[in-house]
Amino acid sequence: MKYKCKCKTFDVYKTTMKVVDGEVINPETYCKECKTYGEYIKEHKGYGGIIKKPNGTIAKRSDLRM
Ligand SMILES: [Zn+2]
User: Fold this and answer.
1) How many other CB atoms sit within 10 Å of the CB of residue 66?
2) If you measure from the C-alpha of residue 27 to the centroid of ligand 1, how many angstroms do you get, rounded to a whole number?
3) CA–CA separation, 63 and 16 (whole Å)
4) Per-residue confidence of the chain (66 residues) as pLDDT tens digits?
5) Contact 23, 64 (CB under 8 A)
6) Cα 11 to middle of ligand 1, angstroms
7) Which residues contact 39 (CB under 8 A, 6 or more apart)?
8) Domain ranges in the chain?
């Protein structure tokens, strides 16, 4: 499972739950470098580089000219 903190993304294979100040946290996702808990990233397999437009059509990233 992938997690993201403020400075990097990393993989955590096993997490335990702990309650600190009324919030549920996963101690394994804590990053000592930026002192934040990692946020779980859902992996979108097979959708890499594809952005869904608001109108429901799918465009490749290269089609979006800013
Ligand atoms: Zn970090």
Assistant:
1) 2
2) 13
3) 42
4) 899 999 999 999 999 999 989 989 899 999 999 999 999 998 766 655 666 667 777 666 666 666
5) no
6) 12
7) 3, 4, 5
8) 1-45
Which structure tokens are listed for 20?
A: 């600190």
Residue 26 · residue 17 · CB < 8 Å:
yes
Show the tokens assigned to 35.
């002192």
Measured in Å, residue 63 CA sits from the centre of ligand 1 at 32
Beta strands in the chain (DSSP E): 2-4, 9-11, 18-20, 23-25, 30-31, 36-37, 39-41, 50-52, 58-60
First to last CA, the chain: 32
CA of 28 to the centre of ligand 1 (A): 12
